[in-house]
Design a protein that fits this description.
Length: about 350
Amino acid sequence: MKRNDRQGKKIAPRLDLQVRFFLVCLLEFVVVALLAYLVSLMIEKLLGVTVNVPIFVWAIAVSIVIGGGISVWITKKFFDPVAHLTAAMREVAGGNFKVKVETDSKLKDIRSIYADFNAMVRELSAIETLQTDFISGVSHEFKTPIAAIEGYTQLLQDHTLSDEERDAYVEKILYNTGRLSGLVGNILLLSKIDNRSVKLTKNRYRLDEQIRQTIVATENKWGTKDIDFDVDLAEVLWSGHEMLLYHVWSNLLDNAIKFSPRGGTIRMRLRRNEAGVVFTICDDGPGIAAGEEERIFGKFYQSDASHEAEGNGLGLALVKTIVTVHGGSISVEPETSRFTVFLPEAGNT
């Protein structure tokens, strides 16, 4: 059975290594028998002596010579690279993901195995780095609010506090408890989406109304900063996972509120074209530095400006994950705070 290559050409399937080894052995036997017969003819012709040695004896003698040579060749070309690869596998099993194997073998199978091994080690190294960064990020993000809660709880033990001071400390504790709750919720949601444990059930609803609901729901946040809104949302009837997409708009809006200066303006647009839906949101904040356009969507990544505001570095990662699940994309213009979300029309079914 033939298969197609990337250019669509018909190419014959490669023979299995074991089949090729069997064919080599069979060919060796035929060649040895032929050589033995030729040697006996040459001796008889040159020396005039009739050789009565059975042909199988000649075959054995020549086989020993040729077999020895073939054994040396196979050891060098096949078994040595396999032994080297085995040693590298032990290194990886021991936790060393910086191993890289190289070979000058002419055998395609050996080169292919080496290339696949190196690719596997690179992926394992990347996964280990992600896990290490994730644990480090989680530990840091949990430590900050927990330390705040502990500190304000200790202050509450002072019986000489006034009612105003006591209420302020309780408010701080509730605020940091909310931060912890939001962090845990985002981590669990990200995990569920990554593990495909969230069923992408689509509902048909008004996308523009959902975005307006997020504005109303965050009034306590933007109201305290006297933020104004410039909103122009076209009426869009859309099919998608309503709860997940709500997280997209709410996280983007929270991000805009967080970085908007007091008295600033948040601009939101929603348009529909033949390709799909385009949503943009922009604030008067410092903007995303050039070179960070992709990195800001990583888990627990925070830009320099992010450290001046409260956050856990998961909001944009969650947004990108949800948008990707819906077949869409999200991007940000460098040196600005303008985020653009695109949802393809193909997914609106």
